[in-house]
Amino acid sequence: MVALGLVALACAPAADTPSPRPIVISTGARLSAAPDRMNEVDDWVRAEMENIQEDPTFLVVTEFLAQPVYPWEGLEINADTVKVSLQGTAVDARTPYMIYGHLPLMNDMGRLDEWLPDAVGLEGFELERAILQRVSDVWLYGRTVFDAAPHLPLEELIYATENGYLDAFILTARADEFPDQHERWRTAIPNGEAQYLAWFEQTFQDLPPGMRSEPTAPQGSPGDAQADTSGVVVGLLP
After folding, report:
1. Rounded Cα distance, 135 and 48, in Å
2. What are the structural domain ranges in the chain?
3. What are the E-state strand segments in 96-152?
4. Residue 6 main-chain phi, psi, to 5 deg
5. Contact of 161 with 65, CB cutoff 8 Å
6. Digit-coded pLDDT (tens) for 6-60
7. Largest Cα–Cα distance of the chain, in whole Å?
8. Contacts of 31 (CB under 8 A, 6+ apart)
């Protein structure tokens, strides 16, 4: 029912985009978004998803899994094709996951200036941070404007981003991938890790990714991977 309502709203002209409403999770933590900011996000999300759907020079493929995974888990780029993995039941999350795959592919193809010009020339952690900031904006837009159904990996991302913990979120979850940046962060902010841990536990009543025992990422079944060229944005956009 929620997904149907989102599709109906998304089919309306951009000028009729609903005003954002505050969101709250089970612990009582709240987020809100300014209408002007969400109007800006609406403009570029629609343009980027139109590109994903209609540009014949590349392909975005989604692999549907049984359990939730973070956007970076399962990301694979091969020439002009990018594969992203996400939980099959997380219908409303498809747009941010696909944008997460689209942006590094555009970077590899030398077209990042079309979608994230401020990130052109960035590499490694700095590029990943810029991409995840963008994905966070997409999910905040989906949750506050279109009442997207909560999806825990993205809830953690938007709450961390909006509360100033994006660096901590990335570097704690992926310390092995960005070891130099992780060490510099811990050195520059001696109590940063403890502060982030305390905030995360209060907000989600759990340890953050990278500090808890993570199960092996589930594998999709044969036929689970598919190209999303129609209906790719069910839940947020037509």
Report:
1. 12
2. 33-145, 163-209
3. none
4. -70, -40
5. no
6. 333 344 455 567 899 999 999 999 999 999 999 999 999 999 999 999 999 999 9
7. 49
8. 22, 23, 24, 140, 143, 144, 158, 159, 162
51, amino acid identity = N
Spatial CB neighbours of 75, under 8 Å, sequence gap ≥ 6: 82, 83, 84, 85, 100, 101, 104
Per-residue pLDDT reduced to its tens digit, 73-113: 999 999 999 999 999 999 999 999 999 999 999 999 999 99
| Strand 59-65 relative to strand 225-227, pairing | antiparallel
Strand 59-65 versus strand 81-87 pairing type:
parallel
**Residues 224, 63: contact at Cβ < 8 Å?**
yes
pTM of the model: 0.87
- What backbone torsions phi and psi does residue 78 show, to the nearest 5 degrees? -135, 105
Hey, CA dihedral for 147, 149, 150, 152, is it positive or negative? negative
Q: Extract the tokens encoding 211.
A: 């500090």
